[in-house]
Amino acid sequence: MTLQGQQTVIDAKQLFASKQEQEWIELAQNGDRQAFQQLYQLHIGRVYALCVRMIADREQAEDVAQEVFVQVWLKLDKFRGDSKFSTWLHSVATNTALSHLRKQKNWLQRVFSLEEAANSEPVINDHPELSDLDKTILRLPEKARLVFVLFAVEGYRHEEIANMLDMAVGSSKSHYHRAKKLLQEWL
Amino acid sequence: MKQTMNEQQLQQRVDELPSEIKPKRDLWQGIERAIELKAQQQQKPEAGNSKTRVINFQPLALAASVVLAVIVFFNYPDAQQPVPEQLTAVEMIEQQYLQEKQNMLVSFGKPDLTKLPNNIRQQFDEIQSARASLLEALEDDPQNPDLLNLLKWTQNQELSLLEQLYSPKWQTI
């Protein structure tokens, strides 16, 4: 098959996948759980990747990924198709993960001292499924990790990240710079 | 001496990161159960499992208490039989909190709170001490809305602490 032919096949497959996804979305919006399960199967990998990178804990990331899909099910009627479903799902996942981290932080601050909480390290050996770079990202300090994941991996802008993390744009850039330097040192 | 990676090399590694990572366990079952529970709650607010009832008990109990108080208040003058002593706002709030705490502990299998680690035990003691101080202040000023709100907030802190310690995770719903 020629290169042009291969591209046509790829385009056709993408078009079919996109139409199939749209059909599942509409069915799920009407309460069809099997269709929603198909959406789950299609997107769980990306959602979990985001959760584990942001939260740096496998079990908590799994819980948050579950919560993301429960939230999506509950909010599905609000999805109007103005953006891609994956983009919308991703923003729900990011917000759910951040909300989890905030709650977790409050909880840790209440039970332990702030210093202890800040020094707690993720159990990186518990992630055999992760690449070396991922494992190293999990070792980063929380703010630096979040900024790095959102900026370098997920493609958010510093302005968006600053808004999400309630910090100045300059701070987001500075955390990103710090994360890069640490990763360059450690890798 | 170990040579550090340059920015371009790092960027290349980042670009090669997998966009998907599969979780170790199947998360769908927990999601489906949670969705089922939410649906049951919407259809029959009084139904649902014990955990859900515990979590949502407070607003329901508060609403029920208000309705009960209103009924008692309007029927009191016509009552022929002796009416039980009317509860004060503080008593109602306390009663509701104790009931909710009891339900919560039962649903968590009656854990032994005396065996908690010291730092957590200390948190409980501090909350209890704050609650006792507020109850004392409310004896002098039983209708003070700020004190009543603080009392409710303090009770919620304890319940929230209990929930975070013992609540089952999604997969066990």
TrEMBL record, chain A:
For the RNA polymerase sigma-70 region domain, which residue ranges apply?
A: 39-105
InterPro entries with a match to the protein in the record: RNA_pol_sigma-70-like (IPR039425), RNA_pol_sigma-70_dom (IPR014284), RNA_pol_sigma70_ECF_CS (IPR000838), RNA_pol_sigma70_r2 (IPR007627), RNA_pol_sigma70_r4_t2 (IPR013249), RNA_pol_sigma_r2 (IPR013325), RNA_pol_sigma_r3/r4-like (IPR013324), WH-like_DNA-bd_sf (IPR036388)
Pfam families registered for this protein in UniProt: Sigma70_r2, Sigma70_r4_2
MF terms in GO: DNA binding; sigma factor activity
BP term (GO), one: DNA-templated transcription initiation
Q: Which UniProt keyword terms apply here? A: DNA-binding, Sigma factor, Transcription, Transcription regulation
Q: Where is the RNA polymerase sigma factor 70 region 4 type domain?
A: 132-183
The Swiss-Prot or TrEMBL record describes its family as follows: Belongs to the sigma-70 factor family. ECF subfamily.
Question: Do you know which NCBIfam families this protein is assigned to?
Answer: sigma70-ECF
Descriptive protein name: RNA polymerase sigma factor
Q: Which organism is it from?
A: Thalassotalea mangrovi
Source organism phylogeny: Bacteria, Pseudomonadati, Pseudomonadota, Gammaproteobacteria, Alteromonadales
UniProtKB/TrEMBL annotation, chain B:
Membrane as UniProt keyword: yes
What does the UniProt keyword field contain? Answer: Membrane, Transmembrane, Transmembrane helix
Q: Which domain of life is it from?
A: Bacteria
Which residues span the membrane?
Answer: 54-76
Q: What is this protein called?
A: Uncharacterized protein
Write down the species: Thalassotalea mangrovi
